[in-house]
Design brief:
This protein is of the alpha+beta class. The chain has 2 helices and 3 strands, in the order E-E-H-E-H. It has a 3-stranded antiparallel sheet, covered by helices on one side.
Length: about 90
C-alpha cells in the first residue's frame, strides 16, 4: 500500500436540506493536493453561480489515506503520457 492525499469537498447550498460531499482526485504529496484546493473551490463556486445558486459554502480538505498499488496504475500511465490529473 502507498500513501495518497485525497482531495474532498463539502458543500452547503441554500434550500438544500443536506450537506453534499464529493471526492475529486488523489495526489502523491500533500503539497500537490494543497495547491489544488483553491482551484477546486473556485471551480465549484463558478459552477454554482452559472446554475444560478446565490448562497453556498464550500470547504475542501486534503485527507491522508492508503491506496493499493493497483489503484495507481491508471494514474502512473496517464502521468507518463502527460496527464496532470490525479487518480
Amino acid at each position: 500500500m502507498t500513501t495518497v492525499w485525497f482531495l474532498m469537498a463539502l458543500m452547503a447550498f441554500s434550500g438544500v436540506p443536506a450537506i453534499q460531499y464529493k471526492g475529486y482526485f488523489a495526489y502523491h504529496t500533500e503539497e500537490e493536493c494543497e495547491m489544488q484546493r483553491p482551484v477546486l473551490e473556485n471551480f465549484i463556486a463558478d459552477s454554482a453561480m452559472r446554475r444560478g445558486v446565490s448562497a453556498f459554502y464550500i470547504k475542501t480538505f486534503c485527507l491522508e489515506m492508503q491506496a493499493f498499488e493497483n489503484q495507481l496504475r491508471g494514474y502512473k500511465k496517464g502521468k507518463q503520457q502527460g496527464a496532470s490529473l490525479g487518480i
